Amino acid sequence: xxxxxxLEVFDTGPGPDTQTVLAPEELDALRKAAYEEGYSxxxxxxxxxxxxxxxxxxxxxxxxxxxxxxxxxxxxxxVLTALAPLLExxxxxxxxxxxxxxxxxxxxxxxQALTRDSLGAPVVVRGNATLGEVVARLSESHxxxxxxxxxxxxxxxxxxxxxxxxxECRIDTDAAIVAVRAALETFHSTVTERKAHG
Length: 198
Prior knowledge:
Blueprint: E1 5-7, E2 20-22, H1 24-115, E3 123-127, H2 129-141, E4 147-151, E5 159-164, E6 167-172, H3 173-197
Protein name: Flagellar assembly protein FliH
């Protein structure tokens, strides 16, 4: 049993008093269309809210990472700036002592490398007077090795020239210290500039 549905008209305009009658199938179709439209609008709102929330979380995470990175860089620069005087003192005091202490071992190593292929020829070691003592000790510890020391005052404490026939090698620990000092100064000035420019 199907009954016609009578709907009240809310039209405020002038006109005859009319009522619209819909068949149950038409009413069902209208309900389904309204439901689908409402569902779709709700889904779109939910997706938009999720996207907005995701964008806010992503922005907050990016800001936190930038702040963390900035803080880490500040901390590293602060530590490096604080360590600079210690590193400079090490380069100025410890490395020269270390250079003098290891020069004999470096000379011995180079002499052995040169004499592997040429036995019998004298090895000439040139350096300042302090190196003469090192060469004398080296001769005593290696009696079969013919070492000749020639003083060369133009060479500094950390420098030596070793010659066997036409082959020659140079040892310059002073140049290595100068290179370390220059690298340290460059590094320190880079850190200072980065701090000044943010």
